[in-house]
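Action item from last week, closing it out:
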Amino acid sequence: MAKYLLEVSYTLEGVKGVLAQGGSAREAAAKAAVESAGGKLEAFYFAFGDRDAVVIYDAPDNEAAAALGLTVAAGGGVTAKTTVLLTPAEVDKAASKKVGYTPPGK
């Protein structure tokens, strides 16, 4: 399975939901959503700053991750950004691949 980072910013409606139901309810909802997409929740944290919550999860493929992100955003309680995460071993493998490329102006 691939690993993903979901960065969440709550809308006014989303904040009202957190206030009404609490943070544990949002973690449970995230876990259920990830599992319904065939994945596994690794971590759920609330945050200060540009994002209100961050979720790290495993999903079977990019399509499952995209479906999860689209469904969460369509709910209207959040805006969400999904980032594919790579392990150091995956980066090592990518760095060893030869790619033909000519930079602009060369």
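Closing note: The chain has one domain: 2-86.
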